[in-house]
Predict the structure.
Amino acid sequence: MAVMKGLRGIWLMWLAAAALLLSGCASTLSARVTTYQQWPVGVQGEYYRILPSGNQAGNLQFSAYADMLRAAIGATGLREAPYGSEPRFEVRLEYGNPVKQGWVQRYEDPFFYPGWPAFGGYYGGWGGWGGGIFYAPRVVNVPVEIYRNTLTVVISDRTMQGREVYRATAVHSSQSDSLDEVMPYLMQAIFDDFPGNNGQTKVVKYELTR
């Protein structure tokens, strides 16, 4: 019984350490950004307008995301067009978070799902380690739902017959349905280092506010 308590203590200590490691990882958010651009020169101070597409018109979620875009688009040097004026650039948003099944590797609790036996020391209380056999946790594949949080921003130039001059897509994968929470970071990722290199793909990371 003492040996089992000692083994259980090892498992709890390992679990606590793993939890601390995971909490540390959760303090950052990463996004994969792909950019295509033929950005014109000499457009500093030109006007833009955000245009809804399809069922985005009158959509409150779209309105909230448009406000986030206004806060992030400053790197382009563009200004939002006043009401009634004709902007040079039109900006459109595409977003979503389709879900699919994925797999992650996790450790089984050997006290509920016996793993593989390993030889070595066991923790015998605060007195230290002693010889014996303990069960190491086994790695198993577990099915999970993966949400692909995606944002695409497209900027078109009306002086070029509406041709696209900037298209960028930011993607963040998560096990939670958190598009609203990650959208400010996706928006920031779209405009970081604007306009970037044509055909560029990069991974960006942000510190999450606690």
Observations:
- Residues 34 and 201 are 4 Å apart (CA to CA).
